[in-house]
Amino acid sequence: MRPVVCIVGRPNVGKSTLFNKIVGRRIAITEDRPGVTRDRIYAEAEWLNNYFILIDTGGIEPYSDDIILSQIKRQAEIAIDTADVILFVVDGLGGITSTDREIANILRKSGKEVLLVCNKIDTPKTPDEIYEFYELGFGEPIVVSAGQSLGLGDLLDEIIKKF
Ligand code: GDP
Ligand code: MG
């Protein structure tokens, strides 16, 4: 069985963009409007001859404000059930939100392997903003820009180390 890697995180942090970049094709739908993703999207991915299944757990669109948190929690629970490795994606420039904390709590309790991914760092120099994410308790954040394809090789190296 191929290892399963799930991407979780609140809407608009760049999960689907990251998914498409790793898979190398545009499968997941990315949009400026938060929460736009078809339900779970699966694809096969490969890095250095390591094959795995990647899942974008974006959620069902459209989110309404009142169901948003329960929906996100449900997605996190699905990821915990299915995943060997969880990519917990945050907006590296946006700071920690209460939703990030809720997701972190669920993931921490799961005991699964979690890699914290700070996305949207579009510059080569890592900004100080990312250090607050240590607080979430998943160790050193992995800094990437899915949009600009920065840091993805290092992220993939960390993913396959967990298999
Ligand atoms: P999702 O809701 O978490 O799946 O997020 P999407 O992948 O749909 O992206 C939400 C928005 O963030 C879109 O406008 C993307 O173009 C943008 N985005 C994604 N990754 C990056 C990035 O690395 N840098 C910047 N600046 N924007 C990004
Ligand atoms: Mg999405």
TrEMBL record:
UniProt-annotated binding residues for GTP 1: 9-16, 56-60, 119-122
Domain EngA-type G: 3-163
Domain of life: Bacteria
Family of the protein in this entry: Belongs to the TRAFAC class TrmE-Era-EngA-EngB-Septin-like GTPase superfamily. EngA (Der) GTPase family.
Subunit structure: Associates with the 50S ribosomal subunit.
Chain's role: GTPase that plays an essential role in the late steps of ribosome biogenesis.
The protein, known as: GTPase Der
Gene transcribed to yield this protein: der
